[in-house]
Design goal:
The chain is built from two helices and 27 strands. Strands 4-6-8-10-12-14-16-18-20-22-26-25-24 form a 13-stranded mixed sheet, with no helix packed on it.
Amino acid sequence: MPDEGDSAGSETDGFISDVSSLPADLAPEAGADPAVSAGTGAVAGDPGDPGTAEETPEQILAAIIGTDRADALMGGDGADSIDGLGGSDDLRGGLGDDTIRGGSGQDWIQGDAAYGPGGNDEIHGGSGDDSLAGQGGDDLIWGDEGDDTILGGAGSDSLFGGAGNDWMSGNDGDDVLVSGGGSDDLDGGAGNDLLIGGDDDETAWIHGGDGEDTLMPGAGDFAEGNAGADQFVLKPVDGDLPTIADFDGTEDRIILHLPEDMTQGAQIQLVQHDDGTTLINVNGDAVARMLQLGGLRVEDIGIVPIRA
């Protein structure tokens, strides 16, 4: 621990904010707790004349930088930029539209202090097995490397798994969840969500949740729409077939995205097997396996031409 005479920007009861390299007008006041003042001490005005703008909550911007150790960094009510660098960090953004980067290590990152109203945050987990939560607002969250846990929270969020075996939940709102490879688990939660699997050798487990969801499984993926009128969007795959676990022909739809040269005179067949499963074939090649037919008819399947 530093001596009592050390300046702000050193360690203070586990909260670290490296502000020594900031311009004088961006640094917190002398003697202030860096974990508190870092989120409220920088005013962004005209870039050419930073001293001309009056301070408003929307203009406040703080740069908070950690160390290679385990840091606990907290923003304020403004738009904060927080970088944990190395170590297993605890990073929290506050109410503004924050940008938070975990860096290396197993980080715990929250875009806002609580679930509910909050800023539209951008969160990058970095390397390591991270736990990331947007909380409030419409957030963009990247798991990056490692086996990550990603929670969108309230609002319409976009979650990207990255490398590793990730678990993602959109929670409330109309969310977008994208598998980045690996054996990922995608849960849309409430709302009308878009869930996209991967085409690698691993299985993504895709669950729409409540609402009218669009599920786009890749090779070897498992997709179930759950409650609501859902769309399953399929395409030709190399490798194992995607599996559709549930289907209700009275409200769900199958859409085929096919190269243009396959759409002219395309022959679609539903081939039922003794085990109760059904293959969806296009021009003799299977594109998906259905565990239950659910009243699906060939004439109900839509085709969308895709340019190469």
